[in-house]
Amino acid sequence: MLKSARKQQRDPEGRMPLAEHLRELRNRLLKAVVAIIVVTVVALIYYKQIAEFLTGPVIDSVGCKKGEGIGGGHPEPCAQITANGLLAPFTIMLKVGLMTGVVVSSPIWLYQLWAFLAPGLHNHEKKYALGFVAAGVPLFLAGAWLAYAVLPTTAGALVGLTPSDWDNLFPADEFFDIVTRMVIVFGLAFELPLLLVLLNFGGVITGRRMLGWWRGMVVGITVFAAVATPTGDPLTMSLLAAPIVVLYFGATGICLFNDRRRRRGNPDAGLDDDEASDLDLTPAPVGDVEPVSRPDDPEDPGPTRRNGYDDVT
Fold it and tell me: Membrane spanning segments where (predicted)?
């Protein structure tokens, strides 16, 4: 049985001893690993269906038809997915199961990461962090789906480079390595706008600065798409770069709205640490003049004088 790290009374400021932090980290990691293992085991049971789901669009796009296999005299370049070696099907099954476990269980291990960081956050920061986790999972899954959607186009562009008298064999382990890399790269790329929003809510960058970066960001995203996609063809690059650019401008709009909301509560919120705030130096109007009695006026002795002063000082 795991010893809970939260049975004792919680510190109102979220402070914990080092041993409690390590115990909490162990419990969170174990829960995340158990979730991945459980999903992986279920994925191993349906390994063939998942493998066919991943390879189906590629086979439909560039697969050799019956009678047009290796040495079949096919008119256009085509490919066949093969398993090389006696242990290849077993290792491929483990790769497919583990990849499915990590992707499908992402809501659980992302929540465990947030739950480990939450005690050190303020109440309003906890609300924002939970929102980031809730938005990060759909963004990651959207990137993974996009990688799966562009995979047939990528395979078609690569196979199209094959000379007409050559044949293509796709080793299955190499194919699933490419699929895994594309899923991770596309999924993490979709997290970029969320990271920028996180930095804005933390006061690191402003929406106006992000808006000023738009030209460089568009060029940088395009270069990243060219490097991240295996083919580098314009169509695949556009399929990756265009959604990220749209998400970037969406994140910029959220940051501008947050900056405006923050300025309403604090006019100096947008200033740098070494920047002086604006001071209103307009002279204030002077009120009505109060009549003051003369000390030598016998009709108006005024306040009691002590040692020549009008008050007790």
Answer: 29-47, 96-117, 129-151, 178-199, 211-229, 235-257
- Token readout for 48 is 């063939």
Question: For the whole model, what pTM was predicted?
Answer: 0.66
Task: Give just the sign of the alpha carbon dihedral 52, 54, 58, 60.
Answer: positive
117's tokens:
């960081």
CA angle at residue 105 from 254 to 32, to 5 degrees?
100
Q: What is the pLDDT of residues 67-86, one digit of tens each?
A: 555 555 555 667 788 888 88
Encode pLDDT of 211-220 as tens digits: 888 899 999 9
- What are 92's strand-pairing partners? none
Left, alpha or beta for 84 (phi > 0: left; psi -120 to 50: alpha)?
A: beta
Task: Please state, in angstroms and rounded to a whole number, the distance separating the CA atoms of residues 129 and 266.
Answer: 22
